[in-house]
Amino acid sequence: MKQIKIFFALLCIAFYGCSTDDDTMAEQQAASIANRVSTTCTNPTPNPNVVGYTGLYWDMANGNSAAYAQLPGVPVVQNPGGQFIHSQQPLLGFTLPQGFSAFESAGQNVVGADVIRNDNQVVYRWVPLATVFQPLVPTQTIIEQEINSMLSFFGFQGQPEVLCTRTAQQNNILPQEFNGRLLRFNGMIAQVWVIGTYVDGLGSSSFAISVSVAPEEEYETQVQETFLPFIFQLFVRPDGQFIDKDGDGFDNLVDPNDCDPNIVPG
């Protein structure tokens, strides 16, 4: 989870440091995104067909900080509806668009939210913390579970087309593994990624999980109007400063658990 958060930190340095009220520039930025080709999409070679907000959203998840500076403005929910607040972790909360409902993610040792449009065609899943009481569980195991659950939800039994894939090892404060997929199936586009964090001798593995799914013909719109606004609510205040939801002195960009003040980097 820290990997994606560090990328958001780089975003804000670039994006908020160079923001403008110039409508012309915003229009130019919006137009340029439509023809923008993803810089990080491979399968296993670069895929020139992943463009626009689809590619931009994938690049953001994969650490291309320059992608954030190309946004024409701060993503916000245009048609606010209800408010989701997690019953066990009330610091996990955000505004929903009209026509969406949110549910606490099911599963033992899982803290998260599943947001579903009322026609069951758009899904956003954010699990900031899922704990498995086994050491060094590979992210491949977790992402396969997430993908299979997603395909089952949509009633798809075939093999999805893989548009982009990436797995990477890294060390931030703790050793981590990133595993992401961009998939197409049955007229849908889905971006799924998992970040595993491992501590030697702890006897458990922790994961952050993100799933974003929408019909292919409206995926670009949902990225702009739903998925990106959720991300900015979770990580960035309107003034561009980072959120410290649990008040432990570590903002959400570096905190290993955004909802528990007793868990801090170290």
UniProtKB/TrEMBL annotation:
<protein>
    <recommendedName>
        <fullName>Lipoprotein</fullName>
    </recommendedName>
</protein>
